[in-house]
Amino acid sequence: MQLPPAEVLASWPEPNYINPITRGHSVLIVSIVCSALATIVTGLRIFTRVKITCTAGMDDLLIILGLLFGIAMAAVISVASFYYGWDRHMWDVPLEWLPTVSKLNLTFQILFSLSASLTKLSFLWFCKRILGAGGKGLYQAYNLALIAAMNAVAVSSVLFMGLSLFQCHPIHAYWDLMPSSPYSCLDDGAIVFSASVINIFTDFVVTLIPMPLIWNLKLPTRQRIATMSIFALGLVVDVAGSVRTVYVWKSMIASYDTTWVGWPILLAATVEINIGLICASAPALRPLIAFFLPRLLGPSYQNDSSTGRRTRSMKQLRSSITISKPSRVRSRHYGLYEDLPMDRLEVFRTIEMNTYTEIRTSTQPVGNVYDICRNPPQYTPRRTHLSRHNSDMSIPLLLLTEYSVLGLRGMPLILIPTPPLPQD
Which among 3, 210, 212, 332 is most buried, taking Cβ atoms within 10 Å? Predict the structure, then answer.
């Protein structure tokens, strides 16, 4: 552990270990409140993906890991502030606490990096699921940009954690006051400050990169602006990261009173991590709102009690449903498609962000999405066919004998009854 120079130590006032001036318990309070909010929003996101849309994916696993590391980080800084002097001047911290203070500081840096990077990766993966696979032109460029951003986030996080862990040789020299063997250490302040600057840049990129994608979605302008506003909440994370970086400079480079001057770092880091988790989870909550509170999404999502349907406009519905003749490819493949009725419904997955639609008729009742996902119908499809439509905006279609289910990679479902295929 690198102690301040002798002249700096001599300039410090006499330590007060009994009744020192402290910053209070703000870190503990902010950590509890922010972690609770992030946990609630993330939990609602997972509930939506698992129970309502049945489309849980890798982005959900990443956000869960990010939340767990964020909670662990909040616990570490709360313990450090409450029990080990991170809320007072450096000269009021007992010497016997300093090794533990250094260990907690190293743990805090690693947990922060893990939580921040996993949250950003989850957000980017979510955007990639919206984009889908097999896009051409502009969508292919978006896909490459998302992959590049994910790689940049992962590489920068691994590099920072590696430098933090191995900045001293041997490693225990980082927290030992008087190492018994020769050692060498890198400049801890320079490492953390550089990582903070890179983190601000990646935060800004992650906030901006989905904006062109959202603007090009097949949505009404009002919905696109609303969705972009949700994504733009990530700018709060950028602001918190900038504040944290300023205090990293002040406490670790411009001053030796790290525990007092650097105290705002703890608050900014807590806000940054938990607001990031909330912003990454908020876009996935739209199906949940549409399911329980459709009025919040406008008149087109309100329940029509006379027909038992939650519907979108017919124009939007036609973008997902087409009536077509059986193709030659299908005829050769099965040999029986020539006899199918001409009004057979084919459901296509398109790159849109829309809420689910329940379509019920008097002759073919369909349960709601929540019931279907929780208690799937017991039937054995006689034939299942997976093919790709020629349209540039279509992703594979799936025809089932009982239900055609439209699920857009983590987005809401559309349930449409379809007639069974003819038996052999």
Answer: 210
Question: Crossing angle of helices 98-131/263-281, nearest 10°?
Answer: 20
**414 φ/ψ angles, rounded to the nearest 5 degrees:** -125, 125
pTM score = 0.72
Decide if 92 contacts 20 (C-beta within 8 A): yes
Torsion, Cα of 96, 102, 103, 105 (10° steps): 140
- The 10s digit of each residue's pLDDT in 384-408 is 344 333 334 333 333 333 333 444 4
What number of CA atoms fall less than 13 Å from residue 102's CA on the CB side?
A: 21
List the CATH code of the domain at 6-292: 1.20.1070
Distance CA 36, CA 38 (A): 5
pLDDT tens digits, one per residue of 338-375: 333 333 333 333 333 333 333 333 344 444 444 445 55
Domain ranges for the chain, please list them.
6-292, 296-417
Distance CA 18, CA 81 (A): 16
Three-state SS for 74-116 is: HHHHHHHHHHCCCCECHHHCCHHHHHHHHHHHHHHHHHHHHHH
Taking only the tens place, the pLDDT of each residue in 52-107 is 999 899 999 999 999 999 999 999 999 999 999 999 999 999 999 999 999 999 99
**Integer Cα distance of 155 and 161 in angstroms:** 10
